[in-house]
Amino acid sequence: MRRLFWLAMGVTIGVLVVRKVSAAAERMTPAGIGGSIAEGLRDLADAIGDFGADVRAAMAEREVELRAGTGLDAPLPEPGQAQLPGRHATDR
Q1: What per-residue string of b and e applies to 67-91 under the rule 16 or more CB within 10 Å gives b?
Q2: Which residues contact 36 (CB under 8 A, 6 or more apart)?
Q3: pLDDT tens-digit series, residues 16-26
Q4: Which pTM does this prediction carry?
Q5: Distance between CA 90 and CA 92 in Å, rounded?
Q6: 69 phi and psi, to 5 degrees?
Q7: Is 75 helix (H, G, I), strand (E, B) or coil?
Q8: If 0-12 CB within 10 Å is exposed, 13-18 middle and 19+ buried, where does residue 32 land?
């Protein structure tokens, strides 16, 4: 019974080692290397796209803050209401 157990253990370990070696050999072929490079480039492109989206969102948010702070979105005054700094309506 012990010999049967160790025989089964040896066969199982042998099968696992052969599968791992076969998978490693497949990754080392030109097609396997090309596939891993393509996958890496896809991941890089996704990361760059996500970064660009984050930058655009932050730019839009900052633009809203700047416009609110400078009053650029305020309505324009009527033609008779506009005054230059340092002048009063009676200085004309």
Answers
A1: eeeeeeeeeeeeeeeeeeeeeeeee
A2: 27
A3: 999 999 998 88
A4: 0.51
A5: 6
A6: -70, -30
A7: coil
A8: middle
